[in-house]
């Protein structure tokens, strides 16, 4: 270290020299040596750069280098990201993943092997031919299953998710769309006509019953009351002639 130590330093340095840069840092900053050609310069940073990990001591906070195969690390023995060509597993950088694991080239990690998972078969579909369920005798019916879990690179692949088989149905003519619509319209009109006819008949019946009832009431009002017949026993009673 150059003996000329300056106190008026910049860039977070507590003490520095013109030749070696920072010699110590202000509180909470990390001291790290950066190589420039054959020369090393001390700098003070708020966090350690890539390839270094920080260690705090009572007198100074330092950045130390990770292992050669490690890009970023938490400590020297625990890597968090590996350099190209290595795969991360349990804090270590490996060229080949252990048995039972596979290399994930996207995350550059060793991950568990995932096998394909599918649902159960669906029920067989209706017997069809060219998208229709009529106008044929022999057709096909299908059933399918859904993929629940896609496999990883070394996982068991998914089986076929669709099956088809021949089927036979009783041949029937396909009803034309226009004719079917016309028949439905005619049925609807006939139904409405029948309902209207029944309604008219019920109305006529109620009117006739009401008219008969009113006629009877009028006849009762206009017919004279019958005189009460005299009691024959009273007419034949003996007359008192004593007087």
Description:
The chain is α+β, with helices and mostly antiparallel strands. Among the domains are: 7-65, Hormone Receptor, Insulin-like Growth Factor Receptor 1, Chain A, domain 2 (Hormone Receptor, Insulin-like Growth Factor Receptor 1, Chain A domain 2, Ribbon); 118-147 and 155-168, no CATH class. The chain is 21% helix and 33% strand. The strands form 8 sheets. The chain has a 3-stranded antiparallel beta sheet with strand order 1-2-3, with no helix packed on it. Strands 4-5 form a two-stranded antiparallel sheet. The longest helix has 46 residues, at 177-222. It is elongated, with a radius of gyration of 54 Å.
Give a short synopsis of this structure.
With 243 residues, this protein is an alpha+beta fold. The protein has helices at residues 177-222, 232-235, and strands spanning 5-6, 13-17, 21-25, 30-36, 39-45, 52-56, 61-65, 70-75, 78-82, 87-89, 92-94, 101-104, 109-112, 117-118, 138-144, 147-149, 162-168.
Descriptive labels:
signal, three-stranded antiparallel beta sheet, 243 residues, Hormone Receptor, Insulin-like Growth Factor Receptor 1, Chain A domain 2, 2 helices, wnt signaling pathway, alpha+beta, two-stranded antiparallel sheet, 21% helix, Growth_fac_rcpt_cys_sf, sensory transduction, repeat, single chain
List the helices and strands and how they pair.
Elements: E1 5-6, E2 13-17, E3 21-25, E4 30-36, E5 39-45, E6 52-56, E7 61-65, E8 70-75, E9 78-82, E10 87-89, E11 92-94, E12 101-104, E13 109-112, E14 117-118, E15 138-144, E16 147-149, E17 162-168, H1 177-222, H2 232-235
Antiparallel strand pairs: 1-2, 2-3, 4-5, 6-7, 8-9, 10-11, 12-13, 14-16, 15-17
């Amino acid at each position: 270290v150059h003996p000329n130590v300056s106190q008026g330093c910049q860039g977070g340095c507590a003490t520095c020299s013109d030749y070696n840069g920072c010699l110590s840092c202000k509180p909470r900053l990390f001291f790290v040596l950066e190589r420039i050609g054959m020369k090393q310069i001390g700098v003070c940073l708020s966090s350690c750069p890539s390839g270094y990990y920080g260690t705090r001591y009572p007198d100074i906070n330092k950045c130390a280098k990770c292992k050669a195969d490690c890009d970023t690390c938490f400590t020297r023995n625990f890597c968090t990201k590996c350099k190209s060509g290595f795969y991360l597993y349990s804090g270590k950088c490996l060229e080949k993943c252990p048995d039972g694991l596979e290399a994930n080239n996207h995350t550059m990690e060793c991950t568990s092997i995932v096998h394909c998972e599918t649902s159960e078969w669906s029920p067989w579909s209706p017997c069809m031919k060219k998208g229709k369920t009529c106008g044929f005798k022999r057709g096909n019916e299908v059933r399918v299953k859904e993929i629940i879990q896609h496999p990883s690179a070394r996982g068991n692949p998914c089986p076929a998710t669709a099956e088809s088989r021949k089927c036979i149905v009783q041949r029937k003519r396909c009803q034309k769309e226009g004719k079917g619509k016309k028949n439905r319209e005619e049925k609807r009109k006939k139904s409405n006509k029948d309902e209207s006819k029944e309604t008219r008949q019920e109305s006529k019946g109620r009117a006739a019953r009401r008219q008969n009832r009113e006629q009877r009431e009028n006849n009762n009002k206009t017919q004279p009351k019958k005189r009460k017949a005299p009691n024959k026993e009273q007419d034949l009673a003996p007359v008192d002639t004593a007087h």
